[in-house]
Specification:
single chain, 115 residues, mainly alpha, 4 helices
């Protein structure tokens, strides 16, 4: 397994969520895992799409497919399904949150003649 590729365990969680499986309407994807690894390579390396290694296929084809999935909401569906824990109900105890001294607010102006 290479540096930026997903593990077998991660693939088991993600693969049912991706379009292009046999039985889905439309064209069956040749290799969703290779495509996902290409997207992760770009995301993790920070490199532009044009620098995508040749083992992933033509960079423009990968980019077009990435955009198509983004427009369809596939990525959002994957992120929603894999979200753990449910951060909508996260609570923070303020006794362990420290504020910077400058976060206390603006100093009050002194009254003239009362000093």
């Amino acid at each position: 397994m290479r540096r930026y590729e997903i593990t077998d365990r991660q693939w088991e969680l993600i693969s049912p969520l991706l379009p292009g499986k046999s039985g889905d309407v439309g064209r069956t994807a040749l290799d969703n895992r290779l495509f996902l690894n290409a997207v992760l390579w770009v995301a993790r390396s920070g490199a532009p799409w044009r620098d995508l290694p040749g083992r992933f296929g033509p960079w423009n084809s990968v980019y077009v497919r990435f955009r198509r999935w983004a427009v369809k909401g596939v990525w959002q569906g994957v992120f929603d399904a894999l979200q753990d824990p449910d951060l909508d109900w996260l609570m923070v105890d303020s006794t362990v949150v420290r504020a910077h001294q400058h976060a206390a607010g603006q100093k009050k102006a002194t009254r003239r003649g009362s000093a």
